[in-house]
Amino acid sequence: MMMITHVFSQVLTTPRYTFSVMMSMVIALTTLFIAVTLTYSLLFSPLPYPNSDRLVKVEFAQYDANDQFNVEAFNYPSLMALYQQRRHLEEIALVHYAEQLLLSHVDSPKVNTAFVTHEWFSMFDIPMHLGRGFTHQSDNTLPVAVLSFEHWQKYFEQDPHIVGKTISFGKARFQVIGVTAAHFIEANLVQFNQKTGVWLAWDHNLTTQEARSFWWNRYANNLMVARLPESETIDAMSLNLSQEMNSLWQTNVQGETYFDGWHIKIWLTPLKAVLLGSSRLLVVGVLAGAIGLLLMVLFNVCNLYIAMLATRRHQLVLRVALGAKKKQLYAQLWFEGLLIMCTATTLAMIIAHLSLLYGAPWLATLFPHVSLLTLSWPVVAIILASVLLLNSVLVSVGLSRFPYQGLAQAMAGATKGIGVQVSAQQINISVVSQLAIAMMIVSCLLTVAWQQWQQIELAHTLPLKDKFIVQLSDTTGSGEAAQQAAYTHAANVLEALPIVEQVSRSNSPLGEQFITWDLTLVDTLKKVTPLGKVVDHRYAPFFSQTLLAGRFFDVTDVQNNANVLMISESLAKQLGGIDQALSTRLSFNIDDPDAAMQVIGVVADQVSLNGSITPSFVYRATQGRHYLLVHLVPGHSLSKVKMEQLFEQHQPGMKVFRVQSLESQRDALLLANKLLLWVSMCITMVTLVLAAVGLFGVMSIRQSAQRQTIAMKRAIGAKNSQLVTEMLLQFGRVAAIATLIAVVGSILLVNYFTTAMDVWAASFCIAVCVVLINAAFWVYQPLQQQLKHAIGCQLRGGKG
């Protein structure tokens, strides 16, 4: 009890040291808690599904005659053939994701649906709150549905008798057979943390009956998940399936000249890797940054600890004189450090837990399964072990600078004034380490921040003010011609409003799932695979696209579905340049002369929000369905309620699926970029603060040890400016070494993260300047304090 009381009192006698160490450790440990939680939860812990280590996504890829990758997506017959024949896989489940209007609900809300085979429920062990899931082969064909717990609450008011009732999507009606449990965590293959509202029977998926017979087409919405047999490897199974399915595909596309020399491959990807996507690299980067931050804090705390021991040398000498053994000194200092470390760890744990809890909406844009990101015992155990090790190292380093025998001799007067002994070499190593780590961390963070800033600035060059996208659904069940007329009438009704400037029957370029179009140059038979998009004659002026050559589509092109194309500048360059590309003919089917389409215009590349590289595009003149782009008079807005009222009055069969401003659509797509930008800048500031604290502590120790030397130089006539210059030259040599080390480390990092060299070089130069200016300021402060003191007081060892 007395020992604990003594430890508490001793910690309270050094408040500045205690506060500095605790705050530094809280910052570092909070970052480490979050980083280790992300790493453990996303990379090492198993997914919450049976035999999750054997779950794989089956991917179907097409390669052209030159063995170049063309597209990754199943054609429907291949998908069903693999599902029905099993092909050595232990279990297979299919899913088709779609957004649909729940027409049986009074508000006709938009709902995320998933058409699945019955194996989906057993493969992911989906728990049920009410009723049952899909459990029988017949559930694939029957019009049955399972609601998510969230949608059951939101749209069905937790109706306890929901099982047996029917719901409708479009013309189809489904009988509800169950409600999933609230704690179920879905493995959505399309988007991080997107939640399915209703699971529907597979055979009712939205692939048209005509398209289900096409061996040459592909549909990105149809996906397959399988369980790998225990005795098989991913590579071996991928090879076997590729050989078998390629043979089947080749047989069924015989006679299609376009596919001469083509082949398909199947590869299996672990489900965990699919769900992580590109966030795996981000997780590794966060962990590396957290470890770097911890190393910097370690140097800082070591310096502060040594400085603190120097102030307590007389107390430690007295304890030795009273018979304290070395182990007793170690134990006392260890428990003092443990008290500070445990307090800092507890605070960091609380802050990290709250950050993960309340930061989930933002983390969901970067990482999958954010609901799994909670502090777990393995994470806490790893951090606690690290803290205990750090505390032990800290005490050992401190006592090694304060020899036990020297303390005993000091009491006898043999070495009067003995204190902490820190060599110049040790101080230089500490400064070099902190500077190099700070430079590498800051340069990486600035690289990330610069890339995100460029992407955000580029995205805002797209003119989206006062522009909206309206997604419609015709529920009359009429034929194709009648539906086309219905969407034309809807566009006319909307354009007649006084607040509307113009309407384009095209889809927004933001967030749209584009597919490649396999086109052949009629004259040279060269193949090109740009991204394709159907647009009307108003699309180009709607987004202020620049015409580089030729002409835009006109209303006649669109009304007649003319075989004319516009292409982007990047595609024109692939075709030999703008002049040569104009009037070039492209075709999906080289054997059909009537299928040839002529390029009539070349437009400037449109900004891409999905990546730094702008892909090549081809545009075809067609009046689209379902989507309307609406440009309003400035100062006005559209809402789903107003749109529903408008169509209820003028066109009752037309339902409003979605109304969204293009600016909000852009903001949603840029959320991850903005989050990375702000996090990078915040961690940069924290890094600079920690570097300043550490360097100030190190240089305080050095200047304290050189106090009398500095006083003697001043006494014999050295000017303050000369002493400052001498200090800066010493710091410059150390800074040069640190910069060289940082260059090597950063080059390794830039290769690992595949960052553009010019971006890295600019970021590194800025990081070096910022770190060195920050460091020079704080290195100068201890000397400035010395120079303010009277020379006589310094020579006597006083404070002046």
TrEMBL record:
**Claim: Transferase is one of the keywords in the record:** no
Q: Give the MacB-like periplasmic core domain ranges.
A: 19-237, 435-641
Does the record bear Membrane in its keywords?
yes
**What InterPro entries does this protein's entry cite?**
ABC3_permease_C (IPR003838), MacB_PCD (IPR025857), Macrolide_Exporter_MacB (IPR050250)
* Example of a GO MF term: transmembrane transporter activity
> Where is this protein found?
Cell membrane
What is one Pfam family matched by this protein? FtsX
Where mainly located? Answer: membrane
Q: Any stretches that span the bilayer, and where are they?
A: 281-308, 329-355, 375-399, 435-453, 675-698, 734-753, 759-780
**Coiled coil feature spans:** none
Keywords, A to Z, come to:
Cell membrane, Membrane, Transmembrane, Transmembrane helix
Which GO CC annotations does the UniProt entry carry?
plasma membrane
Membrane topology, as annotated: Multi-pass membrane protein
Q: Outline the extent of the ABC3 transporter permease C-terminal domain.
A: 290-399, 683-770
Protein name stated in the entry: ABC transporter permease
The species this protein belongs to is Pseudoalteromonas citrea
**Lineage of this protein's species?**
Bacteria, Pseudomonadati, Pseudomonadota, Gammaproteobacteria, Alteromonadales
